[in-house]
Amino acid sequence: MAYALQQLINGVTLGMIYGLIAVGYTMVYGIIGMINFAHGDVFMVGAFLTLIGLVLLAGFGITSVPIALALAFIAAAALSAIYGWTIERVAYRPLRGSFRLAPLISAIGMSIVLQNFVQVSQGARDYNIEPLIPGSITVMTQGGFAVELSWMQVLITVVTLALLAVFTWLVTRTPLGRAMRACEQDLKMASLLGIDTDRTISLTFVIGAVLATAAGMLFLLYYGSINFYIGFTAGVKAFTAAVLGGIGSLPGAVLGGLAIGLIESLWSGYASVPYKNVAAFSVLAIVLIFMPSGLLGRADIEKV
Amino acid sequence: MAAPAPLLEVTHLLMRFGGLTAVSDLDFVARTGEITAVIGPNGAGKTTVFNCITGFYRPTSGALALMHADGHRYALERLPGHQIARRAKVARTFQNIRLFAGMTVLENLMVAQHNALMPSVVNGLLAVFGLGGHRAAERVALDKARGWLDTIGLLDRADDPAGALPYGAQRRLEIARAMCIDPVLLCLDEPAAGLNPRESEELSELLTRIRAGGCSILLIEHDMGVVMRISDHIVVLDHGKKISDGTPAEVRADPRVIAAYLGEGDEDEEPAPHDASAAA
Lengths: 304, 280
Known about the structure:
heterodimer, A: ABC transporter involved in vitamin B12 uptake, BtuC, two-stranded antiparallel ribbon, globular, B: about 280 residues, alpha/beta, Rossmann fold, 2 domains, disordered C terminus
């Protein structure tokens, strides 16, 4: 019982991080109908930028954890926003309107470029930091096994749910969100109504990059260890989460992330750790057979 | 009475697609405060002209100049797509309905007011937190949208998805959406297509009302009842060339127009001004 509860807590935390990355996949897919495979690597870049920021701030003698984290996040988010904007401008916009697979290949290329760039500039080793947010509460104790809920896990859950709320609000209730949905449905018509579609798409990538940086920072703080390859693994999982939840749906992305996180952690806890990915992807396959548009996805609106 | 000031001046417009010349050496003027109809048999090049005006196509050669009342002059053939709506204030609808079907009726009208609501990226981000005068701007936009919904009789369906409306209502909503960008020129591509006689009567009324509100209209239409009843000026195209240009009475009496339509062998498209009003 206690063991199950602990696995549940761990699974939810992991799922929240996946979900936060998945939101970026889902937003970009929503607006231009392509999978931005470089998104996972923007997450990795965001984690590195946060780490560099924290090291620099420590060098300047800023030791207050909340202030250092806030400043490092703002700087990292601004820089990875530039990454997101540039990726769209350089790798995707010139291919808009060409055949569907072209931007997809370009995205995979962009992902490799980012990975190699970080590998060359930062090295291939793992970077470790000490836990900045220590401490936990003991939820229950049973037969000598204490169920721990760390403050870090609370932070991850709160941040993810807060960001999801803000971005759901943005998409459904603000002019920018309406413009995004209009572009999603009919790019040409949106432009005829005076919407700068290029700018709207750029902003979507910028927002996606900021979310990825938030996820990168949480990942860094939670695991305390990053390397140039984390973007690939986490990216594939998050992409799976977005598809599972119904790609194009924001709450679906977080729900899909939770599902993948829980499956992984419960499978690792009760079956076998090496097969946790097999379990996660099997569930994806089964869900897609019976619900092709995912858990919360709507059926495709036919475009005439 | 002096003729009203020209609003849109099309000069030597030429549009080629490979070896096919869709529009050749077309000149015409649409005047401020008037309804100008562009008619002609199928394949005459009417929609191509519209596509050049609204930036869908770049003309092979020729000029499309739009004159605002304040003296601003816009070369539509050089303006990027979204600037044609944003700065030159030209709006258009299509033969097939292109509403944002997944968004609500009200949202469709709000999207058209995007530039008033989000003049810059900073405003867009402030709006997320309700700052930067966003609430006031949103209220103005909502009032305008509700005003148009009232005009087209869809106020009670404001929160339904646009795709769920009946066909005739979707047509009216498209026109209302176009009007929400505050256009000086509204280009309508066959707005009466598929409407029953009562609906096309309502459409005529709506268009006359829009003209009375100060917006000029450029109209492609096959329903001659509508065209003859509301147009101030008609331009007739055939095989990409202008064959006639004048008031409805002049055009109806022009032997070249009659020949072009009879050559098509389509009875429906003969000028027959009274049948629609009789049916209503």
